[in-house]
Amino acid sequence: MFHVKQNDQLDQLQRLVERWNPRINLVSRADVADLRQRHIEDSAQLLPLLPAGDGPAADLGSGAGFPGLVLAILTTRPWHLVEVDRRKAAFLATAAGELGLDHVRIHVARIEDVVLPPLAVVTARALAPLPELLAHAARLLAPEGVALFPKGRSVQDELTAARAGWHMTAEEFPSRTNGASTILRISGIRRAGP
Ligand SMILES: C[S@@+](CC[C@H](N)C(=O)[O-])C[C@H]1O[C@@H](n2cnc3c(N)ncnc32)[C@H](O)[C@@H]1O
């Protein structure tokens, strides 16, 4: 499905997470046995939902690089990975360096404070409820930009809560893995009201 080099890089990322996990809890212990499906494949399924072109992207609260590092392996667009936890950010920097991902930049910062160019894509997985994610996306996205948010079972409740405060076009794609259940692809994000 992917190029040989990309498959090798995904294998390398898996080994790095396995090696670092006992020290800094990048993913839950139960998930380490199923890293490929639960984190790597779960992240890779966002690939066909990315907009065309090479505009810059950011993954917010990237953790061990899911989905940001996986999507950086699979694309050539610039990726900004925003992670406030210094140890996780150190992992991301090491992984990006070892995998030779020169188009990745790590920002050790709070999402609320980070300064980035206007983005074509924002991703965030397991970070916050949808209204909070929309506030981050509205600040960071270019006018035509797209947000991709994998969500669990609460997706409909989160959409209802978000629509009270935000105008947007939201498409729903069923997840193919056992991580997220629905991937939201959201554009035209505008705060509702005066
Ligand atoms: C539950 S983890 C999810 C990590 C990864 N996205 C995943 O799906 O495996 C949430 C991550 O977001 C980071 N985080 C939470 N709030 C943040 C903020 N305001 N700014 C930057 N990073 C934040 C945490 O340090 C943590 O690594």
TrEMBL record:
Q: Which UniProt keywords apply?
A: Cytoplasm, Methyltransferase, rRNA processing, S-adenosyl-L-methionine, Transferase
* InterPro entries attached to this UniProt entry: rRNA_ssu_MeTfrase_G (IPR003682), SAM-dependent_MTases_sf (IPR029063)
Q: What does this protein do?
A: Specifically methylates the N7 position of guanine in position 527 of 16S rRNA.
Query: What is its EC class?
Result: transferase
- Reported EC number(s) for this entry are 2.1.1.170
This chain belongs to which protein, by name? Ribosomal RNA small subunit methyltransferase G
Reaction(s) catalysed by this chain, per the record, are:
guanosine(527) in 16S rRNA + S-adenosyl-L-methionine = N(7)-methylguanosine(527) in 16S rRNA + S-adenosyl-L-homocysteine
Q: Which family does it belong to?
A: Belongs to the methyltransferase superfamily. RNA methyltransferase RsmG family.
> Which residues are involved in binding S-adenosyl-L-methionine?
G61, F66, I111, E112, R125
Where mainly found?
cytoplasm
State one molecular function term (GO): rRNA (guanine-N7-)-methyltransferase activity
Keyword flag Transmembrane helix:
no
SUPFAM superfamilies given for it? S-adenosyl-L-methionine-dependent methyltransferases (SSF53335)
Q: NCBIfam families from the entry?
A: rsmG_gidB
Protein localization? Cytoplasm
Question: Listed GO cellular component terms?
Answer: cytosol
